[in-house]
């Protein structure tokens, strides 16, 4: 039977009463209606809600939530007053799209999204469960963000965008932010002329405040130091660092656990891809000893400069400023037979951005043919797609752990281990 075209029966601006069926990837929910699939934000499965259609395409429509008519027992009042439903959708603060859901239910929904993605795109039945980071349950999922980026309105007021808009919503509190940011943020000040302001919770308990104009290039700036256990990592104050206060230590442990030490060889051509300032190269080095050979590959030159310092204690550690794809391609092209043996014995950690590694990089990795890969992923669908590609190239998923490192949002972080089948 031909599928119905939603454009024949729905128009932007229509209001509908719908029953929400399920969660989808991206922090949105699905209602199957007489017209077809309607995506609904800020809802929960089982709820009857009133929505306004915002965009109609052939096979689905998007909507904004106006009113909850029959709430789920997992619904709570949003912890952030500026994100509550008593405001019009375009004036609700974005960035905490699961804040209306009990914390335990948020993790259940994330687990479901992860498992469904792994089954659909990765072809594997994963039994991983998204678990809380230490301290988050006691803190009700608040106070974890060590980095907060706010937009600045023309009038100089600060806040996040409302979801799906470029409308700045001024806020009077930042409940997800680390306590030092909550204490130091200049939310009452007018920052006229700035386009964004970044708040960074520093390890010494102070807050770095970086206001930038529109289109400003993030050049080299001051160096800051982060601590993971008693190890120091230096980085640029505006550079990438894992956002949840527990994430660097938790992911370091998870990466170490994911590595099968019986397959790891300190003398192999080990890699830390998308390496940032060398967090996971250090995890590998800690596990395999002071002579570990590992190359941290990162596209940002400022980060690789810091990585070189951070990895100085390992005589076999190197850094390369390059795109991962380019690095793998050129390394494979000029490899001798002996080097190819060191590739095959390697342990490769990769931590790509949200879009995942993607087919060209997975193909090159399969040619590199390391003994094992540890994939740190912030997007379950990208991980699942790359899982499918790796399985097609002879790797099997050995372990999968998943963490709720972004409470009150739909995001989650996973650490997957793949071994050559
Ligand atoms: C999710 S971060 C991980 C950084 C590091 N592993 C950590 O945990 O601190 C991804 C990193 O990949 C870098 N990156 C993004 N695309 C890249 C590419 N195509 N080639 C090399 N590096 C890339 C970014 O600059 C960023 O530092």
Automatic annotation (TrEMBL):
It is an enzyme of class 2 (transferase). The active site is at residue 378. One of its GO terms (molecular function) is rRNA (uridine-C5-)-methyltransferase activity. Its EC number is 2.1.1.-. S-adenosyl-L-methionine binds at residues 242, 274, 298, 351. The keyword Membrane does not apply. Residues 9-67 form the TRAM domain. The keyword Aminoacyl-tRNA synthetase does not apply. It comes from the Bacteria. Keywords: Methyltransferase, S-adenosyl-L-methionine, Transferase. One of its GO terms (biological process) is rRNA base methylation. It holds the Pfam family TRAM. Belongs to the class I-like SAM-binding methyltransferase superfamily. RNA M5U methyltransferase family. PANTHER family: RNA M5U METHYLTRANSFERASE, TRNA (URACIL(54)-C(5))-METHYLTRANSFERASE. This is 23S rRNA (Uracil-5-)-methyltransferase RumA.
